[in-house]
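Rotation project, supervised by the postdoc (A.L.). Task for the rotation student: set up a whole-complex structure prediction and record inputs and outputs verbatim in this book. Inputs entered:
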Amino acid sequence: KNQVEQSPQSLIILEGKNCTLQCNYTVSPFSNLRWYKQDTGRGPVSLTIMTFSENTKSNGRYTATLDADTKQSSLHITASQLSDSASYICVVRGFSGGYNKLIFGAGTRLAVHP
Amino acid sequence: DAGITQSPRHKVTETGTPVTLRCHQTENHRYMYWYRQDPGHGLRLIHYSYGVKDTDKGEVSDGYSVSRSKTEDFLLTLESATSSQTSVYFCAISDTSGRRAPGELFFGEGSRLTVL
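Outputs recorded:
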């Protein structure tokens, strides 16, 4: 069964600290992997999209890594800010029976405290 | 921000009543999607549309129907709402299917539905 597992489920850090969120997937064959940020009460907003040939991609203080061999991705947040408090969702696109689909992880809820 | 408007944003209804959620886009994107988001679950696809009057089922389509009579509007209908359909519903749009290119997926702000 194609799955996307994220860890930790929730995380609390102090403002200014770094953190890393994990995403493991079993989706195969794999097309691309995305990270979304979802503020409370809002819709998800894309942070990065990575294809299987990309290892690292940055978007400001957000850096995503991908290891397609081990089927793992991470999202590293540098010098966290209060506005980083949100849920972060890992999404994998795969192919099944000629039909391509997005499989969403349940998300990691990050709280940044002053 | 992508021009996606969902309405209503909040709705409380009773079991057995019909409910229609509307998604309106101003981006002229071909593909439109309805997802539901529940605690502990990833977003799950209910139905999607790949053009006017062209729709198909997602993984959790039971109890839902959709219609798309215009490019800009995608309606999600619960014919007879049940408590298990209490959820936050998100509309999303894309200009590609994602088959040949990654395709960006833009989400609306969500519609919170409570079925009592």
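Student's summary: Residues 32 and 93 of chain B are 4 Å apart (CA to CA).
Supervisor addendum: The mean pLDDT of chain B is 93.
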